Fold this protein.
Amino acid sequence: MTLAVFRRYSVLNTGGSSGVTWGRTRKHLSPQTGRHAPSMTTASDSEAFSPVQGYTRCGRRLYDLKTPSLSTVTPTAMSSFLNFVYSQIFVALPYPKQDLTDQTIIVTGANTGLGLEAARHFTRLNASKVILGVRSLEKGEGAKKSIEESTGRSGVVEAWRLDLCSYESVKQSVQRAHGLQRLDVVVGNAGIAPSTFAMAEDNESMVTVNVISTFLLGLLILPKLRETAAKFNVQPHLTVVSSEVHMMAKFEERKNPDLLKTLNDKNTTDMGDRYQVSKLLQVYCARELAARLNKTGKSDVIVNYLNPGMCHSSLSRDGPFFLEVLKFFLARSTEYGSRALVSAATAGEETQGAYLSDCHVAQWVFLPRRHCCEGFADAENRPAPMVLDEPEMQQRVWDEVSAKLESIRPGIMASV
Ligand SMILES: NC(=O)c1ccc[n+]([C@@H]2O[C@H](COP(=O)([O-])OP(=O)(O)OC[C@H]3O[C@@H](n4cnc5c(N)ncnc54)[C@H](OP(=O)(O)O)[C@@H]3O)[C@@H](O)[C@H]2O)c1
């Protein structure tokens, strides 16, 4: 989370909100809760949206993209900020205790930060194979040694080369993964948040690493997850590490009909917004993927996405000094945040397509009153209001991303 992100709180405006309500208390995820699966919104069950004007067909204003100013703080923005602070200070994440005997797990970006700590938990929890997808094998071997020393388990962890800046590297890793006896979990954790514009493959680097390559990997590996489901009668997971900051994306590129092309335009790119946008795109893609799997009866694989909270890691190495101050007071350790990754990667089918925060299907604690009144009263499954209010945008993002993935690997969409 960056200073720019906090400025976004003053910009995000879903219109029509009239106050903030104290929501319900949080419940921990449990396969035994019997919670209903969150419903998937589709293009047909909501108002049409004009991406250029930011208005629904009914004329309700969705976003106010004014110049940031404290005077534009809205109840929704205030709600998400209060939820963030509440979560960082008061919410306790349960220490993972699941038994993962026999499971094979891949974690991308697992040489450091949240990925490393999640891999450490998976190893401690008895997984039979934990694969660290790393762009530097040297760093991967260092991480493997660290995990083996702390868990006392050897012969479990493997470091595989995987560079999400290269589609070829992603394809090669997936090909290798297809040779595994089974694959129970893939955690798409690797991510970047640089402050300067750079290209990787044919997109801006954050779009390539955080979005395109993450879903290239996810979709290419789906058949293996499905094969594992059928062979071992289990429900594998494809878990994407997103972030609460997806709620703060201005996403001005949405005004242009050609999203990916616009995201590649250096001259119009707002790098202060790009990380949030990349996390928002992850949310759209994960939701649409889960919805499609549900629709086609292929929901034998759980697709969910999560927010680990603000954590101490090297992700914000380019961030402003203010962020360091904020992290000093509020950030979680990477071990603590990694519990959210483990929880999502082992969660029940009620998390299909759901946004998980603090180890459960995310809920508003401070609920914008408008959402109380418009059918979000139980406050569950709360990705950004932008996501819930604009199903058409999810469809647009998916159409563009899936076309791109199809161009990288023809036939890839057949698995969905
Ligand atoms: N920390 C937070 O506050 C926070 C909050 C919300 C969400 N998240 C998300 O959590 C995930 C992990 O972040 P973190 O905080 O643990 O950051 P981190 O410490 O910087 O770790 C990021 C990991 O991703 C790897 N990576 C970067 N580019 C890669 C590429 N091209 N190919 C393969 N791996 C690559 C990094 O490898 P190298 O070491 O080689 O660079 C590193 O292992 C990210 O998706 C991030 O967006 C973090």
Observations:
- The mean pLDDT is 82.
